[in-house]
Write a structure and sequence with these properties.
By secondary structure, the protein is mostly helical. 81% of the residues lie in helices and 0% in strands. The chain contains 20 helices and no strands.
């Protein structure tokens, strides 16, 4: 072999060796950072996990052959972003991971199903169940076809879909999914595994809707106990389970039991996530509502004000999602006789409703009723009349004449007309509405 050709041959092998060495080095760096990032995420050290998973994604991008590794990093990074409340970056990570997995393994692959499940959980966090349901149904279809039965991945989707159906009131759909998920997890995992606790908590939320209080409380307590033993009492998963128990007590008017649990949950979430996280907002709302129910309205006001700051950052200041908190805050202001603050708050709620909801929305009707009732209490009868009239029209159309809320507005409006000495209008209202009931 001529010397020149021999030199080219050696140079080619040297280049190939260097390329392989670089690829192995990149993969080793990826494995190191990804493993550490996944471990940090499991321990709820999300800031640390975010940095490590970002670095692992950067390592995977250095070589074209590492596409599956990049998708894995992006999927896990998306989960971390979702946990941190960084929803736009989470969605971007999920979208890129899905694109890679679809190209690499196909749209009906188990890898794609895992991303669909993650995207659905993001939508569930934002209460967008319309977007979440088809993603979970697709993930479940793929997993049931592609994976051996029973398996933990399918059980995860069944659990998540069961939670969705419980949240949307489709209890008959939720029950078999959650029961199957629990059976699978108990069969394949230890009885005190955190995944078993997740489904026990989901079942408790379902069962409490059916009036089986003792059974629901027992399941909530089991979930709290398992999480306490596995992830510890400072972990957000423990806080989530504790929240289920606290809200169970709240629904049964056992506020003395619920309030300290809700305060503890808020403390955990603020420590893990900081003050502006979605779950912190949920805790502030729950604790504010407990204070309101106990007529501790002066204590509820700062909780609702903090929650509204959080929701404004997440959804936007003019989103109708804020109106429920605004309405509750206004009731607190009214209770402590700060009528000017109550009026301002309800007007803001109505503006948000009118921008983001249909004109016959029951939520808009409720806020109109509340402002009209406030004016009635303040003896501003002329200002109250058009608001109550409009609220009555909305509630009659949306809810029907025999609905409790419609009757409430009808009676309030009739009393207002009495104070305004509008006897002819009272008689017309009586003929039009009472006679049709």
């Amino acid at each position: 072999m001529p010397a020149s050709r021999l030199l080219q041959w050696h140079l080619g092998w040297a280049a190939a060796f260097c390329l392989v060495a670089a690829m192995l080095q990149a993969q080793e760096a990826w494995e190191r950072d990804h493993e550490a990032g996944a471990k940090a995420a499991k321990a709820a050290h999300f800031v640390e996990a975010e940095g490590l998973l970002l670095r692992s994604a950067d390592e995977a991008r250095k070589t074209a052959t590492a596409a599956p590794l990049l998708a894995r990093s992006l999927l896990d990074l998306g989960e971390v972003y979702r946990s941190e409340g960084k929803y736009a970056p989470a969605q971007s990570c999920y979208a890129e991971a899905l694109q890679i997995y679809t190209r690499q393994y196909g749209a009906a692959s188990p890898q794609a199903a895992e991303v669909l499940n993650g995207q659905a959980e993001l939508y569930k966090t934002l209460n967008d169940y319309v977007q979440a349901e088809p993603l979970l149904l697709k993930a479940l279809e793929i997993r049931q076809k592609k994976l051996s039965q029973p398996d933990l991945a399918t059980a995860q989707t069944q659990n998540d879909l069961g939670e969705l159906y419980t949240a949307t009131g489709a209890y008959d759909k939720a029950a078999p999914l959650l029961q199957t998920a629990l059976e699978t997890r108990k069969r394949l995992l230890a009885a005190d595994h955190e995944k078993v606790a997740q489904t026990l908590q989901a079942l408790a939320n379902l069962i409490k809707q059916t009036g089986k209080a003792a059974e629901a409380e027992n399941l909530f307590r089991q979930a709290v106990s398992i999480y306490g033993k596995t992830v510890g009492g400072e972990h957000p998963d423990y806080a989530n389970a504790l929240e289920g128990l606290a809200l169970f007590y709240s629904a049964r008017h056992q506020y003395d039991l619920a309030e300290p649990l809700l305060a503890r949950i808020l403390e955990i979430r603020e420590k893990v996530f900081g003050p502006d996280h979605h779950d912190v907002g949920v805790s502030l709302d729950a604790l504010g509502l407990i204070k309101f129910y106990q007529h501790h309205c002066a204590e509820a006001v700062p909780l609702y004000l903090r929650a509204l700051i959080t929701w404004g950052k997440i959804y936007g200041e003019e989103n109708p999602w804020l109106s429920a908190d605004l309405s509750n805050l206004a009731k607190c202001y009214e209770y402590i006789e700060d009528f000017a603050a109550a009026e301002f708050t309800l007007r803001r709620a109505i503006r948000n409703d009118e921008k983001g909801l249909p004109p016959d929305s029951p939520d808009l009707g409720s806020d109109l009723h509340n402002l009209g009732s406030l004016y009635f209490t303040m003896r501003h009868y002329q200002e109250a009349a058009p608001l109550l009239r409009r609220a009555l029209d909305i509630r009659t159309k949306a809810l029907g004449l025999n609905d409790r809320d419609t009757i409430q507005t009808l009676e309030t409006y009739a009393n207002l007309l009495y104070f305004l000495h509008r006897d002819a209008d009272i008689e017309m209202l009586r003929r039009k509405n009472w006679n049709r009931r």
